[in-house]
Amino acid sequence: MNKLQVKQPTLDSREVAEMMGIEHYKILRKLEGGKDRKGYIEILTDSQMGVSDYFIKSSYKDESGKENPCYLFTKMGCEFIANKFTGEKGILFTAKYVKRFNEMEGYITNSKALNCFKAELTTLIDGMVSQKIDAIEEKCSHYYRPTSFEKQNISQYIKKRLGIDKADEEYELVKQRVLIKLNATKWEDIPVEVLRDSLNVIDESIRVIKADRVTDQISLFDIACTK
User: Fold this and answer.
1) Are 30 and 97 within one domain?
2) What is the model's pTM?
3) Are residues 18 and 78 in the same domain?
């Protein structure tokens, strides 16, 4: 088991053994027990106590690459073991494990604060960069105006939809209506991006002019019929 997978601060049983000044196998024996007596883990399990609140089974590899058992002690686990030792040894172990947990908890607190600061800084920088990009794009769009080729394409599109070969009064009416809709006085006043996305405005203007054309034709027919 990897220690990084444990969400709470823990001490390796090897470090606990070193703090107590005893061999590691003696710690394992106390936890796991033997043929002649139960270990702490079995006793806690039989009493339906949460063993992982105290001890978490893990492993490590020695220099030869062999995997060996060990346990991760939570703060409650260290308190549990400390109560089993009396005198100077128990006092020294308590002082050592309390200091180590305070160091780890302080590191975790500082890491969280640092991560929060990094997240806030990243958000701030992203916002500043986004604003800068928007400002540059807005400034650039001010300079990107329709070219002669693009204006010619628009002109040809309008004429084709009106069914005419050259600009006439209807063409001018469509053009003026589009310019008014886009808040401009000539094609050059409209950014290329806006003009390219304004096909619906052009189509709408053409439909309006065509509708007026039909109305005029009907009116002329009505006048002729009344004579």
Assistant:
1) yes
2) 0.42
3) yes
Domain that holds residue 201: 148-226
Per-residue pLDDT at 69: 93
In the listed set 105, 125, 156, which residue is the last one of a domain according to the structure?
105
Residue at 213 is within a domain: yes
Residue 159 one-letter amino acid = K
Place of tokens 């172990």: 93
Nearest to 72, CA basis, from 14, 21, 25, 30: 14
Q: Are strands 55-61 and 11-12 parallel, antiparallel or unpaired?
A: unpaired
Cα distances (Å, whole numbers) of residue 131 to 126, 137, 138? 9, 10, 10
Q: Number of folded domains in the chain?
A: 2
Residue 109 has pLDDT above 70, yes or no: no
Quote the pLDDT of residue 122: 75
pLDDT of 68 above 90 = yes
Q: Residue 2 carries which DSSP code?
A: -
